[in-house]
Amino acid sequence: MGMQTRTTLDGGNLAQVRHVVLVLSGKGGVGKSTLTTELALALRHAGKKVGILDVDLCGPSIPRMLSVGRPDVHQCDGGWVPVYTDSSKSLALMSIGFMLENPDDAVVWRGPKKNALIGQFVSDVAWGELDVLLVDTPPGTSDEHLSVVENLRKHRLDGAVLVTTPQAVSTGDVRREITFCKKVGVPILGIVENMSGFVCPHCSECSNIFSKGGGEELAKITGSPFLGCVPLDPLLSSSLEGGGDFMKMFPESAAFSAITNICHTLLDTLGAA
């Protein structure tokens, strides 16, 4: 994959990308990658051309959710060609997982090598024309995040969506994420409370198995926009675990209406509705 990073005066490969949004979480296990995928599908459902840049080195799971497997990544004159999930090319994906010889491999590269690859990812994917590019990052705050922010800032970066779960320990981790965003000058587009209630697969009643409202409270305290709550849907989870078609199941899931509302709020914030 040894390509030299292209830097052009017209913005390079992000020149035709209208909006770039980071998706961040303070810790693992809050459903950040799932939410990124759901948000991308909702944006696509709203008629937008969407890209996902999956730089989650801790576990690139988005290719599995979108059923793209491990495709060969091709190169064109403009750089790496993203993988399209449909014939209309309305959803494009480039994942760190495509670069691993074995999808179960752990990424144990030292910082400089990781940061160089992230730099290439940001600069060398030939996205073409997109309405929104979502960037799925590793959990926490690290030099990888700094590398992503520094490389995106050369082109365009609208801001970040922060994902939390309702419990205080998760919202505490997101506080650090908010501090990180403020320190590096990344606008906070909003906070999403994921796993907010459990939807019964039999009667569709939503129960709060965790606490509730932590994300909204955090948004108030920190003066950040609150984008909404997304419930846990076991039918969607079991479909994914069983190798089901996430793209087909998602519009029928309990999470769909919540994600759709978040999607439209985000588009309004970006001025892209």
In short:
By secondary structure, the protein is of the alpha/beta class. The chain contains nine helices and twelve strands.
Which structural class fits the helix and strand makeup? alpha/beta
**How many separate helices?**
9
Q: Which descriptor suits the 3D outline?
A: globular
Number of strands: 12
Secondary-structure element pattern, one letter each: EHEHEEEEHEHEHEEEHEHHH
Strand arrangement in the largest pleated sheet = 5-6-2-7-1-8-9-12
- Calculate Rg over CA atoms: 18 Å
Give the integer mean of the pLDDT values: 78
> Can you summarize the main beta sheet?
8 strands, mixed
In which range does the helix fraction lie?
25-40%
The unreliable regions are 1-10
Distance between the termini: 37 Å
In terms of DSSP E residues, the strand content is: 15-25%
